[in-house]
């Protein structure tokens, strides 16, 4: 079974005025490729990047399983959506597979990305070198706080959100990272769409309403922590139950031992129910 737990959100109806429902997708529209497959491709790509750096030329599907935790059969199935890969008995050529997945994910050339919200999270993301390494080039950061606008942030200068549309006309970014408070997220989202943004990585803990053709991915490490916490609590519960059973088993075995001991050392007491007291 495919893990369909990670989803892509897209509004069903065009226009903000009419959009209140958000559909949950596990399939990219007009594509036969499920979203979990695309997510796994990104994982394979990270591994291939590391192997390439280490000058390793070929990799087998079982090695991919060992290093990513993704089942070898699943790996082969994911690749099968995109044609023929690898040679039986030889494995996969690392640079070639890396290049093909890069092309599939359309990250074979730099993609301009803008970020809104130069706060704690936004500032950390602007300084994250991994974005550029994966061809996502942060070209502008916007905020509405006049104390921040005009200040440098890493290699960028924080821009006024009021200039978003004007600046993005020339930047031509179609992807945005949203790192503003939840209360401002919908308003900023609408400005982003108006400025030509078509894909939003949303960190704000709110479900955005977007028109058709605009994609949203929600990121929440709190959600991830909650899932981890649930797994742990289930495990703890199992351990508790196991300990409970063990203790019950031990108590029962103590009782059996005590009964055997009592039977061995105590004189037999007549059963009074069998010998009614005579009057
Ligand atoms: P922060 O308060 O430090 O930063 C928010 C920034 O957004 C500020 O610089 C503020 O001036 C700016 N801003 C506010 N309204 C704006 C608007 N209308 N236009 C442009 N800029 C605006 O907050 P933070 O700690 O960086 O968190 C940012 C968001 O990310 C919050 O919604 C928070 O809940 C969320 N968050 C999510 C995760 C996650 O895992 N998804 C983790 C941490 C934070």
Features:
3 domains; binds nicotinamide-adenine-dinucleotide; 279 residues; disordered N terminus; 11 strands; extended; 9 helices; Rossmann fold; Arc Repressor Mutant, subunit A; alpha/beta; single chain
Overview of this protein structure:
By secondary structure, this protein is an alpha/beta fold. The protein has three domains: 35-104, Winged helix-like DNA-binding domain superfamily/Winged helix DNA-binding domain (Arc Repressor Mutant, subunit A), CATH 1.10.10; 109-219, NAD(P)-binding Rossmann-like Domain (Rossmann fold), CATH 3.40.50; 224-255. The chain is built from nine helices and eleven strands. It has helices at 35-53, 61-68, 72-80, 94-104, 120-126, 130-133, 164-171, 182-194, 221-265, and strands at 8-11, 22-25, 58-59, 92-93, 111-116, 136-143, 152-153, 156-160, 175-178, 199-202, 215-218. The strands form two sheets. It has a nine-stranded mixed β-sheet with strand order 2-1-11-10-9-5-6-8-7, sandwiched between helices. A two-stranded antiparallel ribbon has the order 3-4. Helix 1 (35-53) packs antiparallel against helix 4 (94-104) and helix 2 crosses helix 3 (72-80). It is extended. The structure holds nicotinamide-adenine-dinucleotide. Nicotinamide-adenine-dinucleotide binds at residues 116-122, 142-145, 148, 161, 179-182, 184, 187-188, 203-205, 219-222.
């Amino acid at each position: 079974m495919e893990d369909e737990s990670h989803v892509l959100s897209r509004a069903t109806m065009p226009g903000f005025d009419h959009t209140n429902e958000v559909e949950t997708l596990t399939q990219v529209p007009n594509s036969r490729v499920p979203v979990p497959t695309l997510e796994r491709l990104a994982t394979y790509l990270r591994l291939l990047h590391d192997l390439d750096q280490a000058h390793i030329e070929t990799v087998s599907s079982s090695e991919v399983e060992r290093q990513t935790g993704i089942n070898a059969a699943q790996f082969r199935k994911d690749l099968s959506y995109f044609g023929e890969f690898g040679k039986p008995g030889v494995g996969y050529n690392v640079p070639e597979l890396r290049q093909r997945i890069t092309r599939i994910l359309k990250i074979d050339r730099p993609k301009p990305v803008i970020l809104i919200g130069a706060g704690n999270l936004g500032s950390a993301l602007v300084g994250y070198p991994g974005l550029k390494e994966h061809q996502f080039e942060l070209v502008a950061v916007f905020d509405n706080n006049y104390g921040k606008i005009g200040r440098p942030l890493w290699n960028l200068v924080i821009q006024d959100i009021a200039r978003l549309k004007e600046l993005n006309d020339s930047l031509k970014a179609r992807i945005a990272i949203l790192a503003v408070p939840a209360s401002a997220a919908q308003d900023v989202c609408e400005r982003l769409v108006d400025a030509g943004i078509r894909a939003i990585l949303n960190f704000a803990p709110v479900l955005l309403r977007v028109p058709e053709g605009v994609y949203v991915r929600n990121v929440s490490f709190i959600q991830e922590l909650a899932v981890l916490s649930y797994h742990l609590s289930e495990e703890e519960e199992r351990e508790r139950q196991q300990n409970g059973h063990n203790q019950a088993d031990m108590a029962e075995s103590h009782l059996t031992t005590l009964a055997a001991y009592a039977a061995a050392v105590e004189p037999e007491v007549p059963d009074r129910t069998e010998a009614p007291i005579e009057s």
